[in-house]
Every structure is written in structure tokens, then in C-alpha cells.
Amino acid sequence: MNTPDDRQLADYRDYLLRYALYRLRDEATAEEVVQETLLAALSARDGFAAQSSVKTWLTGILKHKLIDAQRKLCRDPFLLDERLDDDGSAGDFDSLFDTTGHWGSDGPRSWSNPDAALEQQDFWRVYEECASRMPRRTALVFAMRESLGHEIEEICQNLGISATNCSVLLYRARMSLRLCLDKNWFGR
Length: 188
Known about the structure:
The protein is mainly alpha-helical. It has two domains: 6-75, Rna Polymerase Sigma Factor, Chain: A (Orthogonal Bundle); 82-186, Orthogonal Bundle (Arc Repressor Mutant, subunit A). The protein is built from nine helices and two strands; from the N terminus they run H-H-H-H-E-E-H-H-H-H-H. The chain has helices at 6-11, 13-24, 27-44, 54-75, 114-119, 121-132, 136-147, 152-159, 163-186, and strands at residues 82-84, 90-92. A two-stranded antiparallel ribbon has the order 1-2. A hairpin with a 5-residue loop joins strand 1 and strand 2 (90-92). The radius of gyration is 22 Å and the shape is elongated.
């Protein structure tokens, strides 16, 4: 097999984009990563030794670019100190608590029967909407802990964050979900 030409590389663009979208869940970032992958492949194609298929070679480059993109997303500073509204804008978490740290007058309402709510398919639609409003890094930490069951130490090691930062992100994720679900599901 010879050095891949421009057309061969371009033929795999759609495949690479689907792969990146599945991993990143963000079209703009996925597009950027695929472009970086193709540029890296163009500059390194003379070194292609044909020990694998062009598709496998490109996927390997893409995987490295995805790791770089995910690290970059995790390093972006974000301070979520506000509560979510219908339009995705935010209010203040501190207003939920009194000066002693206990629930204020705007504390959580009774959710009567949470087991019944979980069984309703509509709940999961609202949950997905609420989860999608979280910042990417916060959602990633929450998913790693609550969905995948990773320990805090493992999350910190994978994302290069401190245990304190991880705990803060988990707190913010839980508060965001609680506020959004309280407003858009249980409070309706």
C-alpha cells in the first residue's frame, strides 16, 4: 500500500466525525478534532508504513486528538455558583441556605413518591434536559462518579484535578440537577 493521498484521507472524514461526536457529544469540538486529525495525517502521511489500514491509522491519530481535546475541556475554568432557570441562565445557590448553612425558606419541596416518578419515561426526558445544561466538565465528573461508579481518587487521576475540586464539581452537579428537576419535574 502506498502513501495515502488527499482523497483517501477525505473519504474517512464522515467516519471520523461520527466517532468524535460519539466521544465528545459536541459538534463544534468534534469538527475541530477531526480537522486536526486530518491535518496531522497530511503532515505525517510520508511516514505511513502501511502496517495497518488507512482507516485504522486515522482512528489512532483521532484517538490521541480526542484525549487532548478532553484534557483541554477539563482544564477550562468554570465556576458554577448560580442556579439554572428555564433559559439556562442562572441564579444564586447561596439563596437556598440561611446563615447557619441550613435550608432556607426556599428549601426542597416534598417529592411525594420519587419511585413512581422514576418509572415514568417522561422523567428521563426532563432529566436529560437538566443534565445537558451542566457544564461539560461538571457533567463528566458526575457521570464518572454516579453512572460509571468511579472512585474520587480515580476521577482525580484521570482528569488531573484535586479531590477538593472533584467534590465541588459533584456538589454543583447535584445542586444543578436538584434545582432543575425540582422546577421542571417535581414542582410542575
